[in-house]
Amino acid sequence: MRVSGVVLIVLVFGHLFVNLLVGEGVHAIDFGFVGGKWADPFWQWWDILMLWLALIHGGNGMRTVVNDYTKPGTVQRILKGAILLAVVALIVLGTLVVFTFDPCPVGSPADLLPSFCAA
């Protein structure tokens, strides 16, 4: 938890710095900004690492809360199972979104594509 917390601080503040302070700031964030960012494998892995660490860190914290405030038994197992299911589902879905994101899908009408896509 301590190591993931420190790494998350670096990842989150780096994310905020690039998205909010560099260039035009928050006004530049749109579909094209995200598409351009995720075209670079460095930013894909940055966001994946941030996603995985945040979900694992948060899920482990929630597991600790469940351990602290419930008695061992069926309720505790159900709550821990629900946390595990949510964390795994969000990790899988988030990873799929980052690695399968295509801002320029083949066969789309040119007027619907972002300006950086080749027509």
Automatic annotation (TrEMBL):
Gene Ontology molecular functions: metal ion binding
GO cellular component: membrane
TM helices/strands, residue ranges: 44-66, 78-101
SUPFAM superfamilies documented for this protein: Fumarate reductase respiratory complex transmembrane subunits
Domain of life (superkingdom): Bacteria
Classification via InterPro entries: SQR/QFR_C/D (IPR034804), SuccDH_FuR_B_TM-su (IPR000701)
Compartments where located: Membrane
Principal location: membrane
Alphabetic keyword roster: Heme, Iron, Membrane, Metal-binding, Transmembrane, Transmembrane helix
Keyword set includes Transmembrane helix: yes
Protein name per UniProt: Succinate dehydrogenase
Source organism (scientific name): Agromyces protaetiae
Lineage, highest ranks first: Bacteria, Bacillati, Actinomycetota, Actinomycetes, Micrococcales
